[in-house]
Write a structure and sequence with these properties.
The chain contains six helices and no strands. It is an all-alpha fold. It has a single domain, classed as Four Helix Bundle (Hemerythrin (Met), subunit A), CATH 1.20.120.450. The relative contact order is 0.20.
Amino acid sequence: MKTANQLSKHLHQIYFGGNWTSSNFKETLEGVTLEMATKKINDLNTILVLTYHIHYYLKGTMDAFKNGELTIRDKYSFDHPTLKNETEWQEFRDKIWIEAKEFISLIEALEDNILYTNFIEEKYGSYYRNLAGIIEHTHYHLGQIAIIKKIILHA
């Protein structure tokens, strides 16, 4: 199996299930209402903030794949939209799942020889480094979301 296919499969499993951690983004957000997603627990980020933050990097990296320019900036990675109701929260999540699937398809289409070339500019490292980073970043914050959800449900 190509390395690019393995990376795309791993990202798919983090978003939609089937990985060895038995934890995925979509299932973790199931049952989370907008009220829960915006509930502030001490000095922790909210579920909405973390959800946006995770997807900000996936979407920005996907856009860079498409147009050859990395336009995302860390300072904006927590600037989530203001959602007014459950419909907007559901639409926000639906958009995330659609864009994640699109990005996964782009990764699958990569030839392995591109993985070790510079991603946009040398300072960003290789395609592989960035894709592995997206996977690690998603797992890291997914764990935070899972814990915050448990705190809210058991409060």
